[in-house]
TrEMBL record:
Matching PROSITE patterns: SUSHI (PS50923)
Keywords of this entry: Disulfide bond, Glycoprotein, Repeat, Sushi
SUPFAM superfamilies for the chain: Complement control module/SCR domain
InterPro entries assigned to the protein according to its UniProt record, in alphabetical order: SEZ6_CSMD_C4BPB_Regulators, Sushi/SCR/CCP_sf, Sushi_SCR_CCP_dom
Xref: SMART domains: CCP
Name of the protein: Sushi domain-containing protein
UniProt keyword Disulfide bond, yes or no: yes
Keyword Isomerase: no
Organism: Aquila chrysaetos chrysaetos
Length: 168
């Protein structure tokens, strides 16, 4: 327990002690507190802590990834100093189209549909996910194929009657 004037806090007498500073820093979905601060629970007024962007996010060039313990023992407001990474265009299937529901950034989903007379072969949705090869992002799976219902039906006919002789 400190004395009056200590930066950690102090006591005026038994049972009337206080803690000067801030508690555990703010938790963000887009960034992680740097390792050197992880086990600390009390931070003195004026202390600045730094964050690192989570996978799928990239640091915004003009915004500092820090917050500070203020005089009123609260953490300063943080701007979104990490922004979502953007996936490339997900690709259009031949005889179909991609529907972008929100945007092409990390965490977003696109849907695929086929033109009339075609059926979807493959996944109807893809997500912008973290690439297995590093901090980049990519689309999950592959672009589906829109196959003609008529070609598919015609191609399957001989298989349905395997014992039928074909005249040519």
């Amino acid at each position: 327990v400190g004395h009056i004037g200590d930066s950690e806090g102090g006591c005026l007498g038994p049972g009337s002690c206080w803690r000067a500073g801030c508690g555990t820093p703010t938790i963000f979905s887009f960034a992680e507190l740097n390792k050197e601060y992880k086990n600390q629970t009390v931070f003195p007024v004026g202390k600045t802590v730094k964050y690192t962007c989570q996978p799928g996010y990239v640091k915004h060039p003009q915004i500092s990834p820090t917050i500070m313990c203020l005089e009123n023992q609260t953490w300063s407001e943080a701007q979104e100093f990490c922004k979502r990474r953007r996936c490339d265009h997900p690709g259009e299937p031949e005889n179909g189209r991609v529907i972008v529901t929100t945007d092409l950034f990390f965490g977003s989903t696109v849907n695929y549909t086929c033109n009339e007379g075609h059926r979807l072969v493959g996944a109807s949705q893809r997500q912008c996910v973290i690439s297995s090869s590093g901090p980049r992002v990519r689309w999950s799976g592959d672009v589906p194929v829109c196959q003609s219902k008529y070609v598919a039906a015609g191609a399957e006919q001989p298989d349905k009657k395997p014992n039928t002789a074909q005249k040519g």
